[in-house]
Amino acid sequence: MSQLKKIVFYVIIFDSIGGFFVIIFGLDPGIAIVGYGIIEAIGNRVRLIDYGVIETKAGIPLPDRLKIIDEELNKLIELHNVDELAIEELFFNKNVKTVINVAQARGVEILSFIKKNILAYEYTPLQVKQAITGYGRADKKQMQESIKMIFKLKAVPKPDDAADALAIALCHFFSLKFKEQFRMK
Q: Tens of pLDDT along the chain (185 residues)?
């Protein structure tokens, strides 16, 4: 769909339902496994579009792994005509080498969207859990079951990284009316 047709379509949809129309790309950052979940928000309704993971193998040089992630994200962004990125804030891990590699990957992941003028919003794990289950200390199983119920899926999305990315996208959906406070600065 051309940009002009998309804009006209958005205006018609927005006016008719009195709300938002946005494609949200939820991203669970990583280097070995990057989870993604793509949803469509129309007014107060949400629809699952796609989810999965991008994997890079250990042993491949870091620059090559980052390039693979960037290329795969660019394909998904183009395929799904993404409007906004919702990403989880990085939290500190005891393994410093892992944190550094994931932080480098997260930077590349964010840049993949910023290069296409897609705004990025970030949420803490606590905020995501609170938005999805109503409890900020919910465990992984509670989160996955909530995702399954919200999207009326037959099974919990697998792998876990994909389910986490869907939760991040949903958190952003629930925050659309006050999203600017979560915009990356």
A: 555 455 444 444 454 445 679 999 999 999 999 999 999 999 889 999 999 999 999 999 999 999 999 999 999 999 999 999 999 998 766 777 788 999 999 999 999 999 999 999 999 999 999 999 999 899 999 999 999 999 999 999 999 999 999 999 999 999 999 999 999 98
Phi and psi at residue 97, to the nearest 5°: -60, -40
The CB density around residue 181, as the number of other CB atoms within 10 Å, is: 7
**Does an H or E element contain 5, and which?**
helix 3-17
* 161: annotated active-site residue: yes
Catalytic residue among 84, 88, 122, 164: 88
The size of the chain, in residues, is: 185
Write out the E strands in 10-158. 21-28, 33-42, 45-55, 84-88, 119-123
Token pair 């994909």 is at which residue? 162
Candidate list 28, 40, 84, 109, residue with the active-site label:
28
Residue 28 annotated in active site:
yes
Our answer to whether residue 88 is catalytic in this structure is yes
Residue 47 near residue 40 (C-beta atoms within 8 A): yes
Please name which of 31, 24, 120, 14 lies closest in space to residue 70, comparing C-alpha atoms: 31
Which of 72, 84, 109, 161 does the annotation list as catalytic?
161
